[in-house]
Amino acid sequence: MMRKITLPTIALALLTAVRLLAADAAPLPGELTFTTHNSVYNAEGRFDSWKLTKVDIPGGDLTKGTVEIEVDLASVNEKAAKLAAHLRTPDFFDVATHPKATIAITGAKPAGEKRYEATATIDLHGVKGTCPVAFEVVSEKPLAIKGTATLDRTAFKIGQPYDAANKYAPLNEVKIGISAKLTD
């Protein structure tokens, strides 16, 4: 006797397969978040898929180090699912055309005890640019950092420039947060 396969059975099988694949995926090295706002909403999001592609810190000296990151822009997530979906469209990240962003953090200079300032070179949305990054060492073994940057999204042709007359227009400045474990 042939068993009838129902839509709920197929959905359950797909959900189980996705969970198994996610369990096999490499864990994220930390968090990559963003915040911005307009007159009516505070956006707080994150990227659910990103990886460290290079960590070169000769002799543990952060001032001589380079950290490179690759971000899957389609993994953008926000507490409002509708906004997250909109961020993937040509109005913002256009993930069909520009699926990845890369970030290289170099040139760290001491800025206090366990605090540094560096430069992030970013390739985003087909545009290359830089922005300053401030970070602190939160753990030495394993080496882990926590940092922030402010990015002008319009410098990377993401969205329309801020328009004060449009209460839904986001500010040009986006606050970026990162916490990452750089070594085991």
Write the layout of secondary structure elements.
Layout: H1 7-24, E1 30-37, E2 42-47, E3 50-56, E4 66-72, E5 76-78, H2 81-87, E6 100-110, E7 115-124, E8 127-140, E9 143-152, E10 173-181
Account of the protein in words:
With 184 residues, the protein is mainly beta. It has one domain: Lipid/polyisoprenoid-binding, YceI-like (Lipocalin). The protein is built from two helices and ten strands; from the N terminus they run H-E-E-E-E-E-H-E-E-E-E-E. A ten-stranded antiparallel beta sheet has the order 3-4-6-7-8-9-10-1-2-5, with helices on one face. Strand 1 and strand 2 form a beta hairpin. The longest helix has 18 residues. The protein is globular, with a radius of gyration of 19 Å. About 11% of the residues have low confidence.
State the CATH topology: Lipocalin
Radius of gyration over C-alpha positions, nearest whole angstrom: 19 Å
Strand arrangement, largest sheet?
3-4-6-7-8-9-10-1-2-5
Tell me the number of strands: 10
Helical fraction: 10-25%
Q: Mean pLDDT across all residues, rounded?
A: 88
The CATH superfamily bears the name Lipid/polyisoprenoid-binding, YceI-like
Shape: globular
**What percentage of the residues does DSSP assign to strands (E)?**
over 45%
> What does the largest sheet look like?
10 strands, antiparallel
Q: Which regions have little confidence, pLDDT < 50, spanning 5+ residues?
A: 5-24
In DSSP terms (H or I, runs of 4 or more residues), the helix count works out at: 2
Reported CATH architecture: Beta Barrel
What is the total domain count?
A: 1
Distance between the termini: 54 Å
- CATH class placement: Mainly Beta
Q: Can you write the helix and strand succession as a string?
A: HEEEEEHEEEEE
What is the SS-derived class?
Answer: mainly beta
